Amino acid sequence: MKNTLKRRNFIKLTVSASGALVIGVHLQSCMPKKKIPEVYEFSPLIKIDTDGWVSLIAKNPEIGQGIKTALPMILAEELGANWNKVKVVQADYNKVYDEQWAGGSYAIILNWDLMRTAGAMVRQVLVRAASQKMNLPIEELTAKNSNIVHVKSGDSLPFEKLIVEASQIPLPEEVEFKSMDSFEIVGKSIPQVDLDKVVSGGVEYAIDVKLPEMVYATVLKNPVFEGGITSYEDNEARLVNGVVDIIELNNAAYGGRLIAPNSPNFVNGIAVIGKSTWATFKAVKKLKVVWDNSSSRKENTDEIFVRFHDQLSNTSIERKDGDIKKAKRSAALNYEAVYEVPFLAHATMEPMNCTVDFRDDFCEVWAPTQNPEALQEGLMKLFGLKPEQIKIHLPRIGGGFGRRYYVDYAMDAAILSQKTGKPVKLTWTREEDIRHDWYRPGSVQKIAASLDKEGMVIGWQHILANASRKTSLGREGGPAGTEIDEYDFPAGFVPNLQFEYGHVLSDVPLGQWRAVAASANAFAVHCFLDELAFINKMDPIDYFLEFLGPKRMVPVVGDYEFDVERLITVVEKVRQNSNWDTALPKGQGRGFAARKGAGSFIAEVVTIDTDENGKVKILRVDAAVDCGIVVNPSGAKAQVEGGILEGLCAALYGEITVKDGATVQSNFHDYQWMRMGEMPEINVEFIKNELPPRGLGEPPLPPAIPALANAIYAATGKRIRKLPIVNHLVD
Amino acid sequence: MPSYTIRVNNAEKTVSVDADTPLLWVLRDELGLTGTKYACGKGLCGSCTVQYKGNAIRSCTLPISSALEANITTIEGLSPDQNHPVQQAWMELDVPQCGYCQSGQLISAATLLSKNNNPTEDEINAAMSGNICRCGTYTRIRKAIQLASSKLDK
C-alpha cells in the first residue's frame, strides 16, 4: 500500500475515493531526544503530523509572484488549518501535481477550485473521524484553527488527535466548499512564506546550489542570431587559474532547432568549465572565436522596422465584423495613427543559470524555470531519457517575466554535465543573458477609425505587422504566428471591425514577455482612444465610457463574453481615487487606460510633471482592480505594483536594438531600468466581490504604458506614438 | 595562487584565489555566503552590495586584494536573527517579490541608516539609487526604510 498514492494522478485523486495512508517520513530526524512525530499523508498536497503541524505542498515555482504563499493559503482555508502551524514545502516537478508551469497569470485561475477541493476533501475526513470519536453528527462539526469544533457545545479535537482515524477513511467523492463569508485565511494579507529567509540571505536560488564535486561553467554564444562556429583558439583561456576544460556547444547539430515546445536551443557557443565562477568568467573573455555568420540575415533594427511598415499593406485578416469599408464611406470623420513598440529584454535579476547532475543515466536538475514541463520534455528528447530518470527541483527564482518559459540554459547545463561527467553549475554572464534572450516582439501597428457625427466609432481597423513569437521559435518550419488575436479589445464593441496581421520573418529570437502581446497592443489601442477623445473635445474617461456603452455582456468570440459593468466599475473608481476631475498646475497631466486581462479588470491613471525640456517625473499612479476574490491582498497588491513598474520602465526606457544580426545592449548601463527615485507612490484599490479569483501577474502592466503616454500628451500636447519615451527627450 | 585573509561578519577567513578575484565570488564560491548575489558584474545594479569600512560597496567589482583592511558585513551578518531594524521593517511590510535584489537593498538601507538615522525621502532615493529592483518593490522599500528609521528614533 505504501507509496501507491504518490503515483496516482492528482486530478483523479481529487474526484475519486481513495484511502489516506500512513507514511514514515521523519521531518525532524535531527532532534534525537524528542519523540519524532509521525506524518500522515492525506493527499499529495497535504500532510499532518502527530505534533499538529500541517505540511502543505506549494506545487508551482515561486518567481516572485507570491504563489508559494497564495496556493497553500487556499488549501489551508478549506482544510480549516491554523496558518501559524502550517509548513509550506516547495514541490519538485512531479506529474502527480498536474500542471506546474508559471505563466499567463494562470496559477490562481487554474488552481482555485483544485486547491479548495483538495483542502475540503481532507477536512471532510477529519470531520468524519471527529464525528465518530465525539459521537456527534457531522453537520454540527466544523474545522477551525486545526481543530474540529462542535459549535453548540464548544467541544473540540485538534487535527493531530484525529489523523490516525481519519487516515482510515477514504477521501470523499464529493466535497462541500466553505462559504466565503466564513473565510479566515483567504482575503487576509498574509506575509509571504520564506520572508525571514529572504531578508537574511538564507534562500537558496538555483544560482546558489552547491554540490559535492561540482564544477562551474559559463558560456560564450555567437552574438549573431542564427550564427555558428568556424573555429576557435582557447590556449590563453586554458591558462587561466582554475580552468578545467573548454567545450564546444554545437547546439544546432545537437538538439535541432526546437527540442520540444518551448525548449529551443540552437545557439552555438563555447563553454568554459572551471573550479569557480570567476575562473570561467575570466577565461571566457580570452577565447578567440571565428564565428560562422553565413546563415544570419545580418539585420539592423531600422531595416527590420521598415519591413514591418511595408507589411502593413500585406496582411491576413484575423477577424472581420461587419464592413469597415462601408463604415469608412459613411463616416463623418476617418482618422488613423501608426504606433511603434520596440523589442524588449527580460533582464531578470537572477541571470540564466542551472545546476545539473547528470551521471549514471540519471539527470537531477536545479532549475530556475517557469516551465518544468518543457524542461522534462526537452531532457527526454535530447538524451532519450524516461521520466523516471529525471528529477527537477524548483528553487525560488530571481524573476521570470516570461524569460524562463524557455529552457535553453538548462539544456546547456545538462549537456555540460553529461560531457564532463560531473555536476555542473552553469551561470550566464549578464551580457549573455541580455544578448541571448527571447525578446518581446517589436511591432508597427496602425489603427484606423471611422467616426459618426457624434464622434462615436462605427468602424475600427487594427493592423499589426511584426515578426511573431510563434514563428521565431520554430522559424520557417514552425507554425505561422500572429500577434493580434480575434478576442483582443475592442472586438465586440464596434459593429464594423477588422484585425489584420502582417507577418515578417526575422532572426531576432522572440518569446513571451509579461502580458505578452497586450504589452504592445494596449499602447496602440489606448493611446488611439485617447486621441479620439481629444479630437472630439471630450474628456478621455468620458469618451472611453461612451465607447464601452451600457452595462451589459458583450459577446466577443465563442462563449467568451466581456462584462462591461466590471470594467466601468474600476474606471469610475480610479477616476475618483486619482482626483481625475480636478485641475492640475501647468506642466502636469494625467493619463488614463483601462483593460481586461487574464479575467481581471484594471483601470489606471498616471499623473506626471514635466520640466521645460520635457523630462518626465511620474508623481503618482492610481489603480482600481477587480480580480474577483483577492486571495492575499498584500501579495496581490505587490503584483499590481510590479506590473505597473514594469510597464512604466518599458514605456520610458525599454529598447533592444539589433545591429548586424546581434543585440547591441549588454547590461544595465544600456538596458535601463527605473531607479527608486523615479518610482512614484502607487495607490491600489481592489473591488470587493465574491467572484472566482482571476489572474494578476500580467494585467496591471499593459494599461500603465498608454496611461503614461496619454499623461505626457495631457501635460505637454506631445503625442508619443513610438516607444520608448526616453528617445523623445533627447534635447 | 596567493592566499588572503579577510574578515567577514567578524570572523577571519583565509582563501587561496587570484588577486583580481572580486570579493563577490570569494563570498559566494569560496565561503558559501550566497546571500550576496551576482546580477551584473559591473557595479550597475547593487545586488552584490556588502558593507565595508562603513560604506555600501559593490562586491562584484572590488578585488579581494583591496578588501583586506576592515570587516566585511554581508546580509548573513547583518544581525544574528533577522532583528536588524531594516529586516524587521522589511518583514512587517512584506517587501520582497522575487527577493533576488533584496540582500543588496537591505545592506544599502542599513548603511544609510547607520549614517543618517532620519533620512528624508530624497535622501533615501539618493542612497538607494544604485540598487535596481526588477519586480517593483521600490515603494515598499522606501516605506520600510522610513519605518526602520522610526524604530531607530525611539
Automatic annotation (TrEMBL), chain B:
MF (Gene Ontology): 2 iron, 2 sulfur cluster binding; metal ion binding; oxidoreductase activity
Alphabetized PANTHER family for the sequence: BLR6218 PROTEIN, OXIDOREDUCTASE WITH IRON-SULFUR SUBUNIT
Residues covered by the 2Fe-2S ferredoxin-type domain: 2-78
Organism domain of life: Bacteria
Name of this protein: (2Fe-2S)-binding protein
Key words of the record: 2Fe-2S, Iron, Iron-sulfur, Metal-binding, Oxidoreductase
Keyword Iron: yes
